[in-house]
């Protein structure tokens, strides 16, 4: 049966569900609203365009007209949905010609999240930036080309901060990272974060932890910190995290979860069964513990889009929860994590043990072998894997992939010893580091 389906927001969630719906349904009327110009783009690629690794801006963008034509979508860009009338099943949107209303049978909320942009005294928008959208990227690029800054302060040591510092320093911009936490990348444990900290400082990055930005002065070029220190910077990047764009949902009476994102069930439905939500705006449950999590990653958003599209078309496949597998590059290191880290397990009062193993990425006698460090967290009695973290110059990505897959299969550390992983001197060792850390972990299990 043909339906009128309205989607709010594009990028990984909204654009994906639009295409998925059309692949299996040639008759329904699908309208997608996005408040910006671009329906979809690679958020993760933006630091590399700024640094020159990605040469063409167009490589990060999906052509809106081609997308609309290919999937027969009524695409409305530069059009913001500002109200949901759940009783009459219609939305109000605003574009250049004013406010309009359109009805829906099913509504999908995929408005994403926005970069946190605190209002500090002395804040100067001409030299203080965020990096979350294409206009953000363009503004940074234009400032660099026009003003040729020599110094940059990065507020936040998460994904954006870690990926930007490498690319800015490639442009001969001296960088200072400022974070109020005790470590960089709270995604990993403190001992693993220490390796990242040592690496970035060895590359000339200035790192100030346990420091908080209080204000700006001198037209935004002087940053005043909580400790009383000050930092001079020609430009500042606010990389302090994101917040889900939940206002539209809140205003229409949809439930918000404990994490501050929209609460959905395993079919991506909100408390209104005709309204779905996916992507960075939602709260889902952890794959292992069932506890609420807000994970803003492209992979889960794509899976959520498939689940929601299928459910609208009569399929009853449930979303099994989120692992939060993530990976990033910082200078010469690859850093990856999956599952839960020590801080989360402590917060949940879950007993666990950890094992860390350092090895070479492949056979030591074959040229190019690099050190790799793996850490796993597991149930003290059963050996069930709770989380894993991997850092290295080579081979870290494939070890993370193996461990993420093992977690998805609810494997134990015993199983890690039995995995038959391919070996040849350029790629691994007869006993892969994943096998070895499994042996080390089994020796620590409680009898």
UniProtKB/TrEMBL annotation:
Protein family according to the UniProt entry: Belongs to the class-III pyridine nucleotide-disulfide oxidoreductase family.
MF GO annotations: oxidoreductase activity
Cofactor(s) this protein cannot do without: FAD
Gene3D superfamilies: FAD/NAD(P)-binding domain
Species: Lentibacillus amyloliquefaciens
Domain Pyridine nucleotide-disulphide oxidoreductase dimerisation residues, every copy: 327-428
Xref: InterPro entries: FAD-bd_OxRdtase, FAD/NAD-bd_sf, FAD/NAD-binding_dom, FAD/NAD-linked_Rdtase_dimer_sf, Pyr_nucl-diS_OxRdtase_dimer
Keyword Nucleus: no
Record has Flavoprotein as a keyword: yes
Span of domain FAD/NAD(P)-binding: 4-301
UniProtKB keywords: FAD, Flavoprotein, Oxidoreductase, Redox-active center
Protein name, as recorded: NADH oxidase
């Amino acid at each position: 049966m043909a339906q009128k389906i309205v989607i709010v927001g594009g990028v990984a969630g909204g654009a994906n569900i639009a295409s998925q719906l059309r692949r299996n349904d040639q008759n329904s009327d699908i309208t997608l609203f996005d408040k910006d110009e671009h329906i979809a783009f690679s958020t993760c690629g933006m630091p590399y365009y700024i640094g020159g690794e990605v040469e063409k801006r167009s490589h990060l963008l999906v052509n809106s007209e081609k997308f609309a034509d290919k999937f027969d979508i009524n695409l409305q860009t530069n059009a913001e949905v500002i109200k949901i009338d759940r009783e009459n099943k219609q939305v109000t949107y605003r574009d250049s010609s004013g406010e309009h209303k359109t009805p829906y049978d099913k509504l999908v909320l995929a408005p994403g999240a926005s970069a946190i942009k605190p209002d500090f005294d002395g804040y100067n928008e001409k030299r203080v930036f965020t990096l979350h959208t294409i206009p953000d990227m363009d503004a940074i690029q234009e400032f660099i080309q026009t003003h040729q800054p020599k110094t940059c302060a990065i507020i936040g040591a998460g994904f954006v901060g870690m990926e930007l510092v490498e690319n800015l320093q490639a442009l001969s911009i001296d960088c200072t990272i400022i974070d109020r936490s005790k470590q960089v990348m709270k995604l990993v444990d403190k001992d693993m974060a220490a390796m990242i900290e040592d690496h970035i400082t060895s590359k000339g990055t200035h790192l100030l932890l346990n420091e908080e930005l209080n204000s700006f002065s001198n037209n935004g070029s002087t940053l005043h910190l909580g400790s009383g220190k000050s930092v001079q910077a020609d430009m500042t990047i606010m990389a302090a995290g994101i917040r889900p764009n939940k206002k539209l949902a809140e205003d229409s009476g949809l439930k918000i979860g404990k994490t501050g994102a929209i609460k959905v069930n395993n079919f991506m439905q909100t408390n209104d069964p005709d309204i779905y939500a996916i992507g960075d705006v939602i709260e889902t449950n952890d794959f292992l513990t069932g506890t609420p999590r807000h994970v803003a990653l492209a992979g889960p958003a794509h899976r959520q889009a498939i689940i929601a599209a299928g459910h609208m078309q009569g399929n009853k496949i449930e979303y099994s929860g989120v692992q939060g597998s993530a990976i990033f590059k910082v200078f010469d290191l690859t850093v990856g994590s999956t599952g839960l880290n020590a801080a989360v397990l402590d917060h949940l009062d879950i007993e666990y043990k950890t094992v860390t193993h350092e090895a070479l990425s492949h056979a030591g006698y074959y040229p190019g072998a690099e050190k790799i460090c793996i850490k796993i967290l597991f149930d003290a009695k059963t050996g069930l894997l709770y989380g894993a973290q991997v850092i290295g110059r080579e081979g870290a990505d494939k070890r993370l992939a193996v461990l993420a897959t093992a977690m998805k299969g609810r494997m134990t550390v015993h199983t890690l010893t039995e995995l038959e992983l391919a070996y040849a001197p350029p790629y691994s060792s007869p006993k892969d580091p994943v096998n070895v850390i499994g042996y080390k972990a089994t020796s620590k299990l409680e009898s």
